[in-house]
Amino acid sequence: MTHPHSAHSVHVEKHFTAGDFVRDVVIGMSDGLTVPFALAAGLSGAAAPSSIVVTAGLAEVAAGSIAMGLGGYLAAKSDSDHYWSERKREEKEIEEVPDTEASEVAEILADFGLEPEEYWPVVNALRKRPEAWIDFMMRFELGLEKPDPGRALQSALTIAGAYIMGGIIPLFPYMVMPQAIEALKVSVAVTLVALLIFGFVKGLFTGTKPLASAFQTAIIGAVASAAAFGIARSING
């Protein structure tokens, strides 16, 4: 019985890790594809040469990736701090009011459909194992999973890396084409294709309809860049 249980535990852990990784990639890539794209379109609308678009675009990608990465780090760190704060509180309650906490365990198990003669032996067994008891309360009473110690740094690096990857795509045409307006046309085509592909893949991973996700992602990017281009052109002209 031990072997299947441990295999199941590993599977669940991998599931959660993959979910966090995909979420971080989505956060970084969606902003990375959209913000530099809109900035480049806006500068093109203001009749800036490709060299200015590339310089400003790369500066934005650098600043944006750092800001997004830092945001991811602080969010993951906040989740971790919250978990350990709640765990200390739960540990204190188990020491000070064990009967109350035991009753809460019984209520949780009863909610799963167990009868008193079935769940009281489990409650009494947990009372003899304080760490397991705390783990049980954290997961089933508070709905909190033990955080990965390296999660904050991993989240920061993943979001920042995805932002950079996304940001380079709309800027690349400007790197090889000196005429900004011509580069803009290529950038629009390349970035919209990238947004469609990214939106489709995002839909596959997040469980939404891939085609709907693809078009939604592309439309958001197109509207943002068109707005930036239009505003810059109207101000400049």
TrEMBL record:
<keyword id="KW-0926">Vacuole</keyword>
<keyword id="KW-0812">Transmembrane</keyword>
<dbReference type="InterPro" id="IPR008217">
    <property type="entry name" value="Ccc1_fam"/>
</dbReference>
<feature type="transmembrane region" description="Helical">
    <location>
        <begin position="183"/>
        <end position="205"/>
    </location>
</feature>
<comment type="similarity">
    <text>Belongs to the CCC1 family.</text>
</comment>
<protein>
    <recommendedName>
        <fullName>Iron transporter</fullName>
    </recommendedName>
</protein>
<feature type="transmembrane region" description="Helical">
    <location>
        <begin position="211"/>
        <end position="232"/>
    </location>
</feature>
<keyword id="KW-0410">Iron transport</keyword>
<keyword id="KW-0813">Transport</keyword>
<dbReference type="GO" id="GO:0006826">
    <property type="term" value="P:iron ion transport"/>
</dbReference>
<keyword id="KW-0406">Ion transport</keyword>
<dbReference type="GO" id="GO:0005774">
    <property type="term" value="C:vacuolar membrane"/>
</dbReference>
<keyword id="KW-0472">Membrane</keyword>
<dbReference type="Pfam" id="PF01988">
    <property type="entry name" value="VIT1"/>
</dbReference>
<keyword id="KW-1133">Transmembrane helix</keyword>
<feature type="transmembrane region" description="Helical">
    <location>
        <begin position="156"/>
        <end position="176"/>
    </location>
</feature>
<keyword id="KW-0408">Iron</keyword>
